[in-house]
Amino acid sequence: MMELVCPAGTPAALRAAVEAGAHAVYCGFSDETNARNFPGLNFSPEELVPAVAGAHKRGAKVLVALNTFPRAGGEKLWHQRLADAEAAGVDAVILADIGLLDYAATHHPNLRRHLSVQAAAANPDAINFYAEAFDVKRVVLPRVLTVAEISAINKEIDVETEAFVFGGLCVMAEGRCALSSYATGLSPNMNGVCSPASHVVYAEEGPDLAAKLGGFTIHRTPKDRPAPYPTLCKGCFTSGEQTGHVFEDPVSLDARHLIPALAKAGVTALKIEGRQRSRAYVAEVVRAFRAATDALADGRELPLAELARLTEGQSATAGAYAKTWR
Amino acid sequence: MSDHDQIPRLPKLMGRAMRPLPTAPLSVTLTLLARRIAKRHPGLFQRLGQYRETRFLLDATDLPFKLLLDLRDGKVKLTAHRTAPEAEARIAGPIAGFLGMMHGAYDGDALFFSRDLIVEGDTSAVVALRNAIDDAELDLSAELAELAGPLKPFVQPAVTLAEKGSGMVLHRVDTLAGGWT
């Protein structure tokens, strides 16, 4: 059966994910060592211990994301979190930085290593390098690949692959995108935040909702339209004589209908995005995807429960998997 | 939003019936309830981090008063106001939205996308509060029952009745209400 890897921003969300049928849950510490460093979110080392024990008791794995790039002179925090993760008994750590991968392989050789999507390893040569140099066991694939490309990659590598199937859609080469930094000085790569809430302002301007990031208006949404997050890659801009979503519409990924194709392409695990979301979101999405993976394992038709209302833009896309973008 | 495509609004009759309620005694009761929750769920305030001294205006748009959650000076105060008091952050929407989020029935971001919820002011503080409350796994019916003293046996039937009449979620809906043992 394909492994369902589910998000948990808090201990309560982790419990919700496991109860809803997650095979594995991924989470992070409450600091800049992971790419969802949001206020009020994440785990202290003390909170992680019972969370891991509870998940293991129920047969679920816990993966810890340490997927930001350590600051020069600040590496000790990332090193400490590796030790905290191992002490809590986690099943794997998800890393992006080459230096941290090397440190983990040297100092925590028994701690399983997954390569984060933040490493943007999008071809067999890159993946094989990480596998050979740091004994990485699984690669989280960037969200810029088609199913055919994933199939081609899997034929030339010996490690597991994990593909995003639902949630917020990053359309850039992850780990290398600096758009958020231009507007706020903070990025997912160094600070763990893309378009951080500290720089976001929503304002009712007449009948419109203006969403601003670092003082820049990214969206102006009429009353009857879904409100978006003010992320620059999904902003509405004027370019020449054209006004629109230049990079990508504010929509979310839903690749449920592609699960059989991803299985055929050799993908081991399916990842749901959304550590910043509530336990209500986690429970509902995980239940829907667990029903889908169970159906696939049993050779039944995949159930497709309605999930669009939970997503940004309240509409879904297959993202790069089908490459139908303009 | 498990079973709810559209979140319910407080019945207008109920809103009108609440209008004459004096805000001072209501504020005393609400503060008592909030302090009780704070005591039973200390993790909630730890999660607020740098926003532990923030004033949140909880603007339930179908209630005849606005609620101010004031955390300044290390004290928890939840007070009712006829007009909007000053606050660092404002969250506005139907009371069912607030209660549904609190009980794990609704996702806050989804309510924001659908424009059921409006956020103004310090967005970061709102995100912290939302995450802290979500992790606390609160159950208003259980808190009210404990607060009711000798009237405790009457609370659950009253809550069930209120839920049926209003369509609102007044208790935890997840399967973990019994605990994670």
UniProtKB/TrEMBL annotation, chain A:
Keywords in alphabetical order: 4Fe-4S, Hydrolase, Iron, Iron-sulfur, Metal-binding, Protease, Ubiquinone biosynthesis
Example of a GO biological process term: ubiquinone biosynthetic process
A Pfam family assignment: Peptidase_U32
Cofactors named for this entry: [4Fe-4S] cluster
Cleavable signal peptide: none
Keyword Iron applies: yes
GO molecular function terms noted in the UniProt entry: 4 iron, 4 sulfur cluster binding; metal ion binding; peptidase activity
Domain of life: Bacteria
Binding positions ([4Fe-4S] cluster): 170, 177, 194, 233
InterPro entries: Peptidase_U32, RNA/ubiquinone_mod_enzymes, UbiU
The keyword Iron-sulfur is annotated on this UniProt entry: yes
Pathway assignment: Cofactor biosynthesis; ubiquinone biosynthesis
Family that this chain belongs to: Belongs to the peptidase U32 family. UbiU subfamily.
HAMAP family with a match to the protein in the record: UbiU (MF_02232)
Binding partners and assembly: Forms a heterodimer with UbiV.
Described purpose of this protein according to its UniProt entry: Required for O(2)-independent ubiquinone (coenzyme Q) biosynthesis. Together with UbiV, is essential for the C6-hydroxylation reaction in the oxygen-independent ubiquinone biosynthesis pathway.
UniProt name for this protein: Ubiquinone biosynthesis protein UbiU
Native source species: Rhodobacter aestuarii
Name of encoding gene: ubiU
